Amino acid sequence: MKFIKNISENFNNPNFQNFTNQFTLHDLCKRSGIDYDKVFEIVSEIESNIITNGDAELKALTEKFDGVTLDNFLVTSEEITFAVQIIEKEKPELIQAIKQAHANITKFHNAQKRNSTEKIETTKGVECWQEFRAIEKVGLYIPGGTAPLFSTLLMLAIPAQIAGCKKRVLCTPPQKDGKIHPAILATAHIAGVSEIYKVGGSQAIFAMAHGTETIPKVDKIFGPGNSFVTAAKMKISGHTAIDMPAGPSEVLVLSDETGNVEFIASDLLSQAEHGTDSQAVLITTCEKVAQKTLEEIEKQLSKLNRNEVALEALKSSFIVVCETVEEAIEISNEYAPEHLILHVKNWKNLLSNITNAGSVFCGEFTPESAGDYASGTNHTLPTSGFARSFSGVSVESFGKWITFQHITQQGIENLGDTIEIMAEEEGLDAHKNAVVVRRR
Predict the structure, then answer these.
(1) What is the DSSP string of 370-385?
(2) Do the strands 359-362 and 339-343 form a parallel or antiparallel pair, or are they unpaired?
(3) Are the beta carbons of 138 and 107 closer than 8 angstroms?
(4) Nearest Cα to 157, choosing from 182, 180, 138, 132?
(5) Are 359 and 392 in contact (CB under 8 A)?
(6) 248: nearest Cα among 221, 229, 222
(7) Catalytic choice (47, 250, 273, 338)
(8) Is residue 181 among the annotated active site residues?
(9) How far apart (Å, rounded) are the C-alpha atoms in residues 300 and 131?
(10) Contact 5, 32 (CB under 8 A)
(11) CATH for 151
């Protein structure tokens, strides 16, 4: 097995090294670490101040971090209407694109909705079942930063609406002019979100978790963000539910000798441009594909608006050349990527062997961009190896299942001895008696 550890340093002179002599598979699959001790120290003070001072602290932090002074955090209906009009007038094609994406995402997520499970008679006279209930109050966080992620709003607002969440609160940071990016507001309008607040960063997470004079307390918080947002979500998870742990975005492309290097390079770069801490990985069975992909990455990189961001991300990205596709799948499962793209001729034969991935893109004409925007699947996915144990966001993420049971007189007779014997052995006399009194 051979590998290139730093893609950006090996464009002109691919330096394949012997993988097994220098690193274990576990070493290679480690993500670049974030010093969360320092981050937690910072966000802990922010949380404490928000709990104590509420809106006053939010205003101070908005001025400090966003460079804008706000008298009111709530976005008015007039602001939303104006933003929609701007987009419709200046970018009608964007409105149509958002609507098409909305339709596809809605169609896919509607199929996930189940209101109840089949009633099961476990013993004669003992009937059990489950019913779905929406979480009443949810918070949706959409980052501002270097790009207005209005696509993420679709991914959160649509399943929340389908699930039946009564209160859907959106927090997103203001621009320097004190307004929210019009594309975010237009998307919110299309997705049926009208309660929007101009608050970003970890302070938005804490505001929704604890509530302030203006921003309501919610029961579960969804959405990506930087290390401070992630730390805030981790910190409040003891009392307010969160969607999942989330770190920098990542992709793993798996290719055999048939891989189209132009497509592969574009997939790796589309991930790398997300942020300097993103990671793009290529696992291939063909050294020639690896070499040609390096050349193609360098060619495409120069044409990107965010090439400096992508170049930085490529420093922590890598390529591995394996002997077999089976070996490549083993590495992929160990890495547990957020996004897995299969540039393999017989990709259908591999699907049953994929055990750890947030979302899988099958075949050379299926770019990650499709899932990020408009194919219908959700792009809010587990990162940093959490795909081993977490799923991406779905309709069920916005609700919970409650179990029900009904026991008849015949049923308590049929099951009574079993319950009494087990309760007596555990020394719980009242448990036993609750059955005994019903059988007299």
Answers:
(1) HHHHTSSS------TT
(2) parallel
(3) no
(4) 138
(5) yes
(6) 229
(7) 338
(8) no
(9) 51
(10) no
(11) 3.40.50.1980
Which single residue is written with the structure tokens 């918070």?
139
Band of pLDDT at residue 145, cut at 50, 70 and 90: low
- Which residues are bridge partners to 359 per DSSP? 339
Determine the residue type at 37: D
Domain that holds residue 429: 408-436
Do 222 and 140 fall within a single domain? yes
**Do 156 and 295 belong together in one domain?**
no
Q: How far apart are CA 220 and CA 224, in angstroms?
A: 14
DSSP H/E element including 132: strand 126-134
> Annotated catalytic, 338?
yes
Cα separation, 224 vs 244, whole angstroms: 9
Out of 109, 339, 343, 379, the active site residue is 339
In the chain, the percentage of residues whose pLDDT exceeds 70 is 98
45 & 18 share domain: no
Among 3-7, 291-295, 341-345, the least confident range: 3-7
For the segment 302-319, what is each residue's pLDDT rounded down to a tens digit? 999 999 999 999 998 999
Confidence of residue 25 (pLDDT cuts 50, 70, 90): confident
DSSP letters for 167-219: EEEEEE---TTS---HHHHHHHHHTT--EEEE--HHHHHHHHHH--SSSPP-S
Statement to judge: residues 227 and 344 lie in one domain: no
Residues ≥6 apart with Cβ < 8 Å to 366: 341
Count of the separate structural domains present in the chain: 3
Residue 257 pLDDT: 96
Mean per-residue pLDDT, 354-361? 98
Tens-digit pLDDT profile for residues 166-209 = 999 999 999 999 999 999 999 999 999 999 999 999 999 999 99
Q: For the stretch 345-358, what's the b/e string if a residue is b when 16 or more beta carbons lie within 10 angstroms of its beta carbon? A: eebeebeeeeebbb
